[in-house]
Amino acid sequence: MSSQYPSLKPFNTLGINVVARDITTAKTIADLCDAWQTCQQKNMPFILLGGGSNVLFLEDYHGMVVINRLMGIQVEEKDDAWHLHVGAGENWHHLVEYTLAQGFSGLENLALIPGCVGSAPIQNIGAYGVELKDVCEYVDIVDLQHGQIKRLLADACQFGYRDSLFKHAYRDGYAITAVGIKLAKTWHPVMTYGELTKLNSATVTPGQIFDGVCHMRRSKLPDPEITGNVGSFFKNPVVDAIEASEILHHYPDVPHYPQTNGAVKLAAGWLIDQCHLKGYRIGGAAVHRQQALVIINENNATSQDIVALAHEIRQRVGSKFNVLLEPEVRFIGAMGEKDATEVIS
Q1: Catalytic one of 162, 314, 316, 330
Q2: Distance between the two ends of the chain, CA-based, in angstroms?
Q3: 81: how many CB neighbours lie within 10 A of its CB?
Q4: Which of helix, strand or coil describes residue 290?
Q5: Is the predicted pLDDT of residue 32 greater than 90, yes or no?
Q6: Contact 96, 106 (CB under 8 A)
Q7: Do 212 and 130 contact (CB within 8 A), yes or no?
């Protein structure tokens, strides 16, 4: 496509220099539906972005990119909890800061996760022992064809590890408009990872956990405003008990986290690091030197550079550990989303 089309570079945190046929901002549900119906009439693809912090555009996009800016935070206080109704276009980290400023606890472990609130249920975002599903009360979606709003209670969202119903049955033709969050007044600090384990559980405050999480993330993860990235590029792989036992036999230091179903989650960053890939580069794309789980746009990387590097990482980890990593990032082709694992295989 020609350069007369608008650039997507400001709208994806990897900073990939591609264009879209059209870019528009939606501030209301009606805006979302109008954009969808325009695409239907013109037979154009449609994609909704929040912060663009979890997408890789593989090429120029032949459709309309809609930037979700449905804003607003409403709070209802009850005896046991605060209930928040948050617009999908709100910045996630700003929401975390807002809740702490109001004296609400429960989101502090999820500080500094990039992106908007509407993306949080899609990925079931999580960090440092807490996932969105732990605090989510409901998700509001709109049927873009008919303009009808539907509320899905958390139990109906099929939350899994970096997964939800919104990646499947409600991926096409629907948009998340708001998320309901319940923050209990009885606070149970989660201090199971990294520097958080050193805090005193008897005296710890939500603010101290927030500060600890921000420090850990800033020390390991590059600022996308300075260096293009999407945070964690790969999911932490979950393997069965037999596979985990075999890996632990050969690599007893591997960070591992037993799951409720008997499976074991492994740390993808550690696996990549053991393949001596920190700083490894293909074209303008490189493995971050502080955190191997992050691929950075070091020097005007193309999407092909990113894909080639992700492929190399997957191959090397697979060869060494017999574990095949899967991207956490959504891959977007000219006409829509593609199977990311298939693209880098």
Answers
A1: 162
A2: 27
A3: 18
A4: coil
A5: yes
A6: no
A7: no
